[in-house]
Amino acid sequence: MTETPDILFNGPHDAALTLVLAHGAGALMDSPFMDAFAEGVAAGGFRVARFEFPYMAQRRDTGKKRPPDRAPVLEATWHRVIAHLGSPANTVIGGKSMGGRIASMVADEAGVAGLVCLGYPFHPPGKPERTRTAHLEKLKTPALIVQGERDTLGNRADVAGYTLASSIEMMWLPDGDHSFKPRKASGYTEPENWNCGIKRILAFMAALSGA
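Predicted structure:
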């Protein structure tokens, strides 16, 4: 599959920067999580673009769940979307979990302005020894990783032991899980954590744009 995926836009067309978000392994590009972050960032004055990898687009068409495409297909899809938008220097890429991870693997090569990962999968669930951090040790693209403190794919204690490039900023959402949902007893709420994440993304984007 070589065609450019359908792209869903939010926010002003003439914004200084466009944030491109890819979905996680199991949910569509218009899941409640993706809607909240896309609409929140768009409301802050930036354009947001969303797309689906081939396997997810097929799921939308057929209703049948499929496993994610292999990494070369996912990376090639990212490159096609970036090329289609036409201006890597005015583009920030990222996304939820797997979508953000694949974005982080192409960011330097693509020459984009920045990277935003929402719940980075630092390791598979229950397998902290299988880290996915080698490329993050030398990442040159300015990056923001928004992470829940108790994310089972990389919690605060896990990440404290990793070597990450100085280009990467971590933002921790209190008591958040992989989708930033805190436990009720924590005193925090999921909407509060989502809003905190959106505000930090807006500040990151503003700094990149020189605003």
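Summary: The first helix runs from residue 32 to 43.
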